[in-house]
Amino acid sequence: MRDALLSVHDFSVTYDVDPPVEAVKHVTLELRRGEILGLAGESGCGKTTLAYGVQRLLKAPAVITSGSVVFHDASGEDVEVDRLDAEQMRRFRWDKVSMVFQGAMNALNPVAPIGAQLEDVFVVHRPQMSRAERREAVAELLEIVKVGRQRARSFPHELSGGMRQRVMIAMALALRPQLMVMDEPTTALDVLVQREILRQISQLRHEFGFTVVFITHDLPLLLEISDRIAIMREGEIVELDTAERIWTNPQDDYTKTLLSSFPRLTGERGVVVR
Ligand SMILES: Nc1ncnc2c1ncn2[C@@H]1O[C@H](COP(=O)(O)OP(=O)(O)OP(=O)(O)O)[C@@H](O)[C@H]1O
Questions:
Q1: Pocket mutation for ligand 1, best pick of 11, 18, 47 (most atoms within 8 Å of C-beta)
Q2: Residue 232 · residue 238 · CB < 8 Å
Q3: Is residue 216 part of a domain?
Q4: Taking every annotated instance into account, which residue ranges of this chain make up the domain ABC transporter (predicted)?
Q5: Which domain holds residue 134?
Q6: What digits encode the pLDDT tens for the residues 242-256?
Q7: Which residue of 24, 25, 27, 48 sits with most ligand 1 atoms within 8 Å of its CB, as the best mutation to test the pocket?
């Protein structure tokens, strides 16, 4: 199996407004299997556009103006993402990649128990599963994300924000994707809950072997949880290196500025065991 999971080459996105916004400019990067890649940079630098763009999730006025994206599937097959038709793309998004959005926990249906909502993922995407199998899979998922199987009948409003976000992570894990893109997934949560969830994601990716792209402007957080960090500025990746080297020996002036803008709260990295 190849070490690389996703190869992005010369990828550019422009928002075709007046004047046009070149949101992502000639980005080339390779995601490695099993890593947590942090994507950092100020608001508006293009993080979300890049992450959505490589999955072809952008709508007009966004236009992909250059580049290619190849997904190196665990089966050994190379999937050229830009060549997939609509139906292949839909399946690709669910089976290979999953997303956890900012405030995702508010996307749960308020009038349906969380177990039923998780089950729906299997109803739609694994129609061959029996009801009993689905129920068991849901119970397992709720255990994995430490919500507990006994909560399957709970409604979203009966759960805390942290619990609801765990349910969303369970949903993202349901089909065992190879890549999980998390866009500010825990910013709405208090710091302790956030750390706890991140610790768990880090453990889960070892267990399940998925890759994580974690997007945030919270660089100290990324330093704790990421294997590598890409620093984005004005649509470009100005530096990409291990979290260790970004922390101890940043090369780019902008990275240095970003680092110096955060107070050293603990003086040390590694609150999250990687
Ligand atoms: N629909 C749109 N139309 C026009 N410009 C857009 C649109 N969406 C984003 N942009 C612009 O593209 C640039 C990149 O935005 P993007 O949301 O990708 O940045 P970001 O780094 O993810 O920011 P944030 O951290 O605030 O989410 C910004 O200048 C933004 O104003």
A1: 47
A2: yes
A3: no
A4: 8-259
A5: 107-176
A6: 999 999 999 999 999
A7: 48
